[in-house]
Amino acid sequence: MSDTVTSLPEQLGFQTQYFDLPHLRMHAAVAGPENGPLLILLHGFPEFWYSWRYQIGPLAQAGFRVVVPDQRGYNLTAKTPPFDVQTLADDILALMDACGRASACIAGHDWGAVVAWTLAALHPERIARLAILNVPHPAPMMRALLGGNPRQIARSWYIFFFQIPDLPEWTLRRHGFADMHRMMRGSSRGSS
Predict the structure, then answer these.
(1) Residue 5 CA to its chain's centroid (Å)
(2) Domain region containing 65
(3) Inside any domain, residue 70
(4) Burial class of 92 by CB neighbour count within 10 A (0 to 12, 13 to 18, 19+)
(5) In whole angstroms, what is the distance from residue 180 CA to residue 158 CA?
(6) Does residue 99 contact residue 38 with C-beta atoms inside 8 Å?
(7) Fewer C-beta within 10 Å: the chain N or C terminus?
(8) Nearest CA to 2 among 33, 41, 35, 30?
(9) Dihedral over Cα of 7, 12, 14, 20: its sign
(10) Exposed, middle or buried: residue 174 (CB in 10 Å: 0-12, 13-18, 19+)?
């Protein structure tokens, strides 16, 4: 661990810091007692630690050591390839190691839930508790995708799109991020 970053997190009652992992410099919000049970909150796409800002304080007050990383490629964490789900899961294992913990409670939302499911499947001994938000178990999800469920394929397009090297970045930068803005505005129910 090194370099504490200040500003908005301190205004919200916690800090952020960098973790120097074996293959990645990872930025994370941290709060709660250092000896509390480790709880890692994994954000979705296209979010970062800030999406968990309302949960961090209450969870820290409940006694958890809350660590909310910006996952690889997001916000202040390094944009170091590769970005496949196995690598992202390995990043979280390295984060647990950097925190000096053999296991952790993991909560994942959206893309973070995909990473959390991967962690639980491949390293169940390292998962004390698992909470998944907004993503089904991988088995029925894969059946829907591989079985050609057009509705699920349409809803999951970004999972495949963001695995293509360089194309997502180019697409989102195009026209001054207009496509990104349109995508974000259109993701809310009732908005156009």
Answers:
(1) 19
(2) 2-135
(3) yes
(4) buried
(5) 12
(6) yes
(7) C
(8) 30
(9) negative
(10) exposed
